[in-house]
Specification:
By secondary structure, the protein is mainly α. It has a domain of 271 residues. Helix content is 64%, strand content 1%. The protein contains 18 helices and 2 strands. Strands 1-2 form a two-stranded antiparallel sheet. The chain is globular, with a radius of gyration of 20 Å.
């Protein structure tokens, strides 16, 4: 399962200025809003709707099966990658903020992290581990020391995490006995009030920090680049394709035809535990994963192949959206309502959880076979975002989150 959406500093789509166009032609860095990133966020939101509301993979076939498969895992990874991108919008995208501005930016991010952790905990009390917001809070806190790194340093860091952390997570999970886990949980205040405790956030949850930081750091590296530059777009497209084909192809060769099987559909978390229910009950049981599963690349498998391949997909979607919005102004105009969803993806994410019980929809219901609820949620999100953005700069929750960070301006 997947999903969530990170808060962002962005405002609704704005037209590119003549200054930006001149800079683009001259090869200099562009300063305009990258609406292609907002389009990618919207696609991630819709992918989340598909996973949480749509029919399970076992109940689909043909094109619908491919849509469901692509949404599994990849939409949440795209969210996490763009969360890293959003961090840099606050901390200084092309050049890191320093001095007073840098300290205030870090304070804003720290406040956001705490708010997201609190909001995620509250939602987890009702919906369990499937809520990613609490995990985001941890990601943001751990990313603070990396804010001033260059794109190259961030990319190397992300690559190192992707190569090392899946194996480390496997070893730690293998050594984590039930008694140790129960002891840790007994002292964990978060575990006492919700389904997600500190151990879940760091290691055993559905989006464990130990492996998911790779996506966040990759997004931070992506933000350091000038995505409007044609040369950068070409290099990133080639990189994304190479990562995707290389990771999934090599996994297929090493692990066989089941390598790309959706472990999320089987109910396994990326920590390798069997879920007791299909929708974030928070309880889990052994068995542990076999070492051979480290060769898998299935969604939420948490392996190196899964991480590398998923980052490749996230890069392709982000760059593809940017190219489409840059090269096809008419399509960009038509896509404005969809782009608006990307500017308020936190609202769209939380809203879809709150709306489901009111509409009598059970998220993750294995007997769900109709695609109509998904389409209604997508159309509803587009209509709401398009209408709201005509009158307000930020989405409802985005505005509240931004207001919560105001005290950071008092940092000296």
């Amino acid at each position: 399962m997947t999903q969530i959406q990170p808060p962002q500093e962005n405002s609704p789509p704005l037209p590119r200025t003549s200054t930006e166009s001149a800079r683009k032609l001259s090869g200099g860095p562009s300063t305009g809003r990258l609406v292609g990133v907002d389009l990618a966020r919207a696609l991630a939101v819709f992918g989340m709707y598909i996973v949480h509301i749509g029919p399970p993979l076992s109940a689909t076939d043909g094109v619908a099966r491919w849509v469901r498969y692509l949404a599994d895992g990849h939409s949440s990874v795209l969210f996490a990658t763009l969360a890293g991108f959003s961090l840099m919008l606050i901390a200084g995208r092309r050049e890191p903020k320093t001095g007073l501005a840098g300290r205030q930016a870090k304070a804003r991010l720290a406040i956001r992290a705490v708010v997201l952790l609190a909001l995620g905990t509250v939602l987890a009390m009702e919906y369990g581990e499937v809520i990613i917001l609490g995990f985001y809070g941890v990601y943001f806190l751990l990313a603070l020391p990396l804010l001033r790194l260059s794109a190259k340093a961030l990319a190397i860091t992300a690559a190192g995490l992707a190569l090392v952390t899946p194996q480390l997570a496997f070893v730690l999970n293998a050594r984590l006995s039930e008694s140790v886990q129960q002891t840790v949980d007994s002292y964990d205040p978060l575990k006492k009030i919700s389904e997600v405790g500190v151990l879940d956030l760091l290691l055993t949850g559905f989006y464990p920090t130990i492996t998911w930081m790779s996506f966040v750091v990759a997004g931070m590296a992506l933000a350091r680049l000038d995505l409007s530059a044609v040369s950068v777009q070409r290099r990133l497209a080639a990189l994304g394709a190479a990562l995707t084909v290389g990771a999934y192809g090599l996994s297929l060769v090493l692990a066989g035809k089941d390598a790309l099987h959706s472990t999320a559909e089987d109910g396994k978390s990326s920590a390798g535990f069997e879920k007791a229910s299909s929708f974030g009950s928070g309880s889990f049981e052994a068995p542990r994963r076999a070492a051979s599963e480290l060769l898998s690349a299935g969604p939420h498998s948490g392996t190196t192949f899964d991480i590398v391949g998923s980052v490749g997909v996230a890069i392709l979607v982000t760059v593809g959206g940017t190219v489409l919005m840059d090269r096809l102004p008419r399509l960009r105009c038509l896509a404005k309502p969809v782009i608006a969803v990307g500017t308020m993806s936190l609202t769209a994410y939380v809203g879809h959880f709150l709306a489901q019980p009111m509409l009598g929809i059970s998220a993750g219901e294995s007997s769900q076979t109709s695609w109509i609820p998904v389409l209604l949620f997508i159309l509803g999100a587009i209509a709401f975002a398009a209408g709201w953005s005509r009158f307000f700069r930020r989405g409802p929750l985005e505005a509240l989150l931004n207001a919560a960070t105001k005290p950071a301006k008092h940092i000296r």
